[in-house]
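User: Sequence recovery, please. Input:
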């Protein structure tokens, strides 16, 4: 897949604000600061389609980006930022669960993890939700420029074990510094859905 065109469409909190045109969706979710915005910007070849926020954990919005005028990338609010209150955490959960609940257009969820860290309790909950709602998923680990190959290999095994990944769940690796892994992520998404025009 090559992304030639991308545009911000809407920020939503409640489901009545989501786009109503029935185009299919690929959603991105992960801990705050994991590199989600950087990943999406790299995939769409734009420096600032998604803002790289200086105050992590502040966005509680679902952002919809129309890709190649055909389908959506959906940027879900990041979770697990240490400084948010319990109340904010609950509101985050509400926003995400409302989206995950019965979203027919949603075809794949990209769960983003930092390759250096063991998945947190929040990551595990997120993965369980994805499975509970029966969505297909790929796991993308970011910031691989920060670790050696052997460390990365070890960490991927820890991630697989901690999340208790199913055998056919794939872990891909990515660095937004040098874009390593980008083509494989796009190709994998392409192979999982049938709404991306070929060629
Ligand atoms: N070295 C390195 N830094 C990264 C990478 N991805 C993101 N970052 C940095 O991590 C911080 C958080 O990135 P951002 O994309 O805003 O994360 P988000 O909160 O998940 O959207 C920023 O300072 C990024 O420059 C990566 O692959 N490698
Ligand atoms: Mg972000």
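Assistant: Recovered sequence (199 residues):
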């Amino acid at each position: 897949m090559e992304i030639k065109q991308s545009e911000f469409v809407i920020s939503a909190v409640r489901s009545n604000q989501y786009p109503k045109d029935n185009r299919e969706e690929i959603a991105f979710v992960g801990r705050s600061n994991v590199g989600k915005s950087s990943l999406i910007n790299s995939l769409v070849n734009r420096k600032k389609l998604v803002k790289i926020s200086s105050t992590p954990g502040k966005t509680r919005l679902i952002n919809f980006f129309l890709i190649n005028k055909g389908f959506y990338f959906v940027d879900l609010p990041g979770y697990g930022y240490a400084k948010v209150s319990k109340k904010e955490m609950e509101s985050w959960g509400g926003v995400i669960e409302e989206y995950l609940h019965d979203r027919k257009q949603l075809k794949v969820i990209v769960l983003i993890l930092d390759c250096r860290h063991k998945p947190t309790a929040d990551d595990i909950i997120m993965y369980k939700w994805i499975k509970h709602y029966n969505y297909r998923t790929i796991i993308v680990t970011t910031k691989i420029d920060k670790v050696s190959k052997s460390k990365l290999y070890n960490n991927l095994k820890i991630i697989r074990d901690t999340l208790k990944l199913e055998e056919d769940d794939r872990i891909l690796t990515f660095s937004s510094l040098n874009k390593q892994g980008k083509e494989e992520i796009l190709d994998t998404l392409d192979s999982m859905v049938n709404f991306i025009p070929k060629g």
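The chain has one domain: 6-192.
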